[in-house]
Specification:
Number of domains: 3
Shape: elongated
Number of strands: 7
Radius of gyration: 28 Å
CATH class of the largest domain: Mainly Alpha
Strand content: 5-15%
Strand order of the largest sheet: 1-2-3-4
Structural class: alpha+beta
Distance between the termini: 104 Å
CATH architecture of the largest domain: Orthogonal Bundle
Number of helices: 17
Helix content: 40-55%
Length: about 425
């Protein structure tokens, strides 16, 4: 049923009993043989001997589903790749593995691990962490083997219910679901699953619709920012984290991943020039962000910064880091500590809980309330502008950047006294 040979390359499906008692459920594997060398590829399915014997013609729903999944992967992926490479006379296991690419069999968790490895190999440590967290969540829900064919709208609904009852915020659930969808999309592109079995889409069409996060207020008023600025911190650690949060706010709401990478060479004529790392490698239209160094920012640099030299980081946290993995780990540590300590500050001031994420939203909201042009806010946040007309106007000038960002500086309201009549 699953046997194919072409130009010295053979493909067959086996029940691997080498490392298990034959009475147990044993893994079903694809065996590829070339020049007397065999390599085995997991299918993600384990079968008992009696199940294996009826795989080819059983009408039992579970066995039939296994057979159809295997048949689809055999026809649409493995056989096609071997046929192409063998007929061209260029088959090798290295080439075969490269051509498999995103195809990691029918096992969802294997696909996640392959994706994580690829991201780590390409220094996409942040993205790899998201996939790792999503996989851990899925394993907490179901520790057994999960096939792509198991992922139905009903399965996703149950998984979502499990997350809600943990409880986990809808915004986080949305991240997990979009990450899972990306892995499912890879499987669909590799013909591991049929398009008709694709589980995501509109709920009205019988598909699973990914939830969106609630509209939680994420910005502070300028008066609240001033309270944080003037707060007397009980420890140096809290003070430093508070100042880093404020620096992020004043610096166009720069995220910590970018901010901690700033070097003195990024400063030109009193402004910091940088690209958002989040979009630098993915966006075709790369926007250079320019942030004026306001007086509070300069004071923070002088208080906590490195010695001024072009190659030095502005802040010292990455001084000892050498690789992207080390950068990411250290940035994560600083963010985690800042999120923990900034909450102590807002609690003491009886303000809402905030995190490093709120600095960006506060920056945008405060400028918007001061009727600063939306095009300026968009430019300062590093959003790409697809408005053709706007592109004719060019970028805002240094004078305009300083003028608008100065709205972030607290100015006490003047006291007015009523005249006596």
């Amino acid at each position: 049923m699953f046997d194919y040979t072409s130009n010295g390359v053979s493909l067959t499906l086996i029940r691997d009993t080498r490392y298990k008692d034959t009475l147990e459920a044993c893994p079903i594997k694809w065996r590829v043989t070339y020049q007397r060398k065999s390599t085995y590829y997991l299918s993600g399915i384990n079968l008992l001997q009696n199940e294996w014997e009826i795989l080819s013609d059983s009408r039992k729903p579970a066995i039939k589903e296994y057979r159809e999944t295997l048949q689809n992967h055999y026809d649409e992926v493995l056989k096609k790749i071997i046929k192409d490479l063998a007929e061209k006379g260029i088959f090798s296991f290295d080439l075969f593995n490269v051509r498999l690419g995103k195809s990691t069999g029918n096992d969802l968790k294997q696909a996640f691990n392959a994706k994580i490895k690829k991201l780590v190999d390409n220094d996409k440590i942040g993205n790899a962490s998201i996939y790792r967290c999503t996989l851990r969540s899925i394993e907490n829900y179901n520790s057994k083997t999960i096939l792509f064919s198991d992922i139905t709208p009903k399965w996703l609904e149950k998984y979502q219910t499990f997350l809600i009852e943990k409880p986990i915020r809808y915004a986080t659930i949305g991240i997990y679901m979009r990450t899972l969808r990306a892995v499912i999309n890879d499987a669909k592109d590799a013909n591991i699953i049929n398009p008709s079995a694709y589980p995501f889409g509109l709920k009205k069409n019988g598909k699973f619709e990914i939830p969106t996060g609630g509209g939680r207020e994420l910005s502070l008023e300028l008066e609240d920012i001033n309270k944080i600025n003037e707060y007397t911190c009980p420890t140096k650690t809290i003070e430093r984290c508070r100042d880093l949060w404020l620096f992020s706010f004043y610096c166009n709401g720069a995220n910590f991943g970018d901010m901690l990478r700033f070097r003195f060479s990024d400063i030109n004529d009193g402004e910091i020039y940088f690209y958002r790392k989040k979009t630098k490698d993915t966006s075709k239209n790369k926007i250079e962000i320019i942030a004026p160094i306001l007086e509070p920012m300069q004071k923070i640099i002088e208080k906590w910064g490195n010695d001024e030299a072009p190659k030095n980081f502005i802040f010292p946290f990455l001084n000892e880091s050498k690789t992207e993995t080390e950068y990411k780990a250290q940035i994560h540590n600083v963010i985690r500590l800042t999120n923990k300590t900034i909450k102590l500050v807002t609690k003491a001031l009886k303000l809402p809980d905030i995190s490093t994420y709120n600095a960006r939203h506060s920056y945008a909201t405060i400028l918007n309330k001061n009727r600063v042009p939306e095009s300026f806010i968009s430019e300062q946040l590093g959003h790409s502008n697809n408005n053709v007309t706007q592109s004719y106007f060019g970028r805002y000038s240094k004078k305009e950047r300083l003028k608008y960002n100065n709205f972030l500086i607290w100015k006490p309201k003047k006291q007015t006294t009523k005249k006596k009549i």
